[in-house]
Amino acid sequence: MKADIKSVSETDLRAQLAAWGESAYRAAQVLDWIYRRGATDWEQMTNLPRPLREKLGQTFAHQVLELVRQQGARDTTRKFLWRLADHALIESVLIPANPALYGDASDRHTLCISTQVGCAYGCKFCASGLDGWKRNLRVEEIVDQALAVERLARAGFRMTDAAPDAAMAAPATRPPAPDTRTVNNLVVMGMGEPLANYDNLLAALRLLNAPWGGGIGARKITISTSGLVPEIRRLAAEPEQFRLAISLHGATDAVRNRLMPVNRKYPLAALADAGDEYQRRKGRMITLEYILIAGVNDALEEAAPLAALARRLHAKVNLIPYNAVEGLPWERPAEAAQERFLAALEARGVTATLRREKGHDIDAACGQLRLKTGRELAAPAERPA
Ligand code: SAH
Ligand code: SF4
């Protein structure tokens, strides 16, 4: 199988071009087409000589995600459902800037991306794990979620106009300046457990982070994990300053065991040590994600151990009212109960946020679109793409 161009580093591309006796600047031209101009076909790379385009096409694949469905309106959360080459479905979610959460005040959009088809970790509240785990995403399938959204954004999010030819025929073929990009914040919180696809995740994030690639700063990339302790430690040793979010959801082993099977393998004490190491090595505040589920983890007694852990890890707490999942018994607490829980954390000196706007529920939105559409598409009355 040919390597996809969206999984190839600048160094490797240069080496390949040098081996063909091509000038060094050709690598920059190819990368510019892929990462800045949104080329979806070698034929669009009109400043490359035709024989070189042909050679590139024979050597590298350039398979792009197929958009199946798009939901949401301008300036609100927008969900994208993609079909992969093997017909598996994955999703990405684009949300307008919410400076308090994962980025800085200047940020405009955050894209939530998936890393696996399904999830093997089977958290009791989560839609992503309901149908089990199918496979890891390939490097280019992770990278292209960001590139495909940029391509669509440039076509005004019109599904038909985003077809390669229409996009290329548009008068604005000048590469957009980095500050006109739509996605400048990434959260790896879509379907799947990112740290269970470690190598592909890291390779993809490096391509999206590279100045010649996606150009998204490492500090604007947040990886969310359900708590894979060895991989958190491994990530702590990487040179990049990626942000870490730990999906905690319970501040005692009793509560966490009930919700997350992974806690039996890596209980809270081990997870806290790994979080501590990450925080110390990066010098960055980590985030503890805490879904509030009525009658399960929202009692005020839970706030004390949660606050203690947050303070130990110098972490902020992100409270997320549970988003009901069809077929699962869990519910979100009443608003007053959510506010009380938040106040209890704040009273203990913890920095905490409570997700109030429904449309901005990125964590919650992730993982729920594919399941629904997957079942609809599997039904006889199939919707045309
Ligand atoms: N597997 C990783 C990343 C994907 S899940 C992880 O677990 O961290 C991203 C976040 O969405 C997690 O914090 C997860 O617990 C949360 N989530 C999943 N289902 C949810 C739901 N129904 N409502 C609210 N948050 C949910
Ligand atoms: Fe997997 Fe994360 Fe969902 Fe747990 S919360 S099942 S780890 S995607």
Name a few traits of the molecule.
two-stranded antiparallel sheet, 12 strands, ten-stranded mixed beta sheet, 14 helices, 36% helix, 385 residues, alpha/beta, disordered C terminus, binds iron/sulfur cluster, elongated, binds S-adenosyl-L-homocysteine
Helix content: 25-40%
Shape, per Cα inertia axes:
elongated
Going across the biggest sheet, name each strand in turn.
1-2-3-4-7-8-9-10-11-12
How many β-strand runs?
Answer: 12
- What are the segments in which pLDDT stays under 50 over at least 5 consecutive residues? 103-107, 161-178, 379-385
Largest sheet: 10 strands, mixed
What is the beta-strand fraction? 15-25%
Query: Compounds present?
Result: S-adenosyl-L-homocysteine, iron/sulfur cluster
Number of helices: 14
Give the topology, please.
Elements: H1 10-19, H2 25-35, H3 50-59, E1 66-71, E2 78-83, E3 89-96, E4 109-112, E5 116-118, E6 133-136, H4 139-154, H5 164-169, E7 185-188, H6 198-209, E8 221-225, H7 229-236, E9 243-247, H8 253-259, H9 262-265, H10 268-282, E10 287-292, H11 303-313, E11 316-321, H12 335-347, E12 352-354, H13 362-365, H14 369-378
Parallel strand pairs: 4-7, 7-8, 8-9, 9-10, 10-11, 11-12
Antiparallel strand pairs: 1-2, 2-3, 3-4, 5-6
Helix pairs in contact: 1-2, 4-6, 7-10, 11-12
Iron/sulfur cluster is lined by residues 119, 121-123, 126, 128-129, 192-193, 226, 247, 367.
Give a structural overview.
It is built from 14 helices and twelve strands. It is α/β, with parallel strands linked by helices. A ten-stranded mixed beta sheet has the order 1-2-3-4-7-8-9-10-11-12, with helices on both faces. The protein has a two-stranded antiparallel ribbon with strand order 5-6. A hairpin with a 6-residue loop joins strand 1 and strand 2 (78-83). Helix 4 runs parallel beside helix 6 and helix 11 (303-313) crosses helix 12 (335-347). It binds S-adenosyl-L-homocysteine and iron/sulfur cluster. S-adenosyl-L-homocysteine (SAH) binds at residues 125-126, 189, 193, 224-226, 247, 289, 291, 320, 322-323, 325, 363-364, 366-367.
